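Help needed: design a sequence for this.
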């Protein structure tokens, strides 16, 4: 549960501190093609799993 709380805090910092830049970034993400978004998502999941593996050892 603490990990989820930490993620929520970190994710909330962007829109709270930099709302204009955050909106611009979301607009650019919406304009990306679906395969590109899938690759980005896959890379994030892979990076997260690798970090989880490294730090859980």
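Sure. Designed sequence:
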């Amino acid at each position: 549960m603490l990990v989820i709380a930490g993620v929520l805090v970190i994710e909330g910092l962007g829109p709270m501190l930099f709302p204009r830049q955050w909106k611009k970034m979301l607009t650019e993400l919406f304009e990306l093609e679906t395969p590109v978004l899938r690759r980005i998502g896959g890379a994030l999941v892979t990076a997260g799993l690798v970090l989880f593996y490294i730090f859980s050892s």
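Residues 49 and 55 are 10 Å apart (CA to CA).
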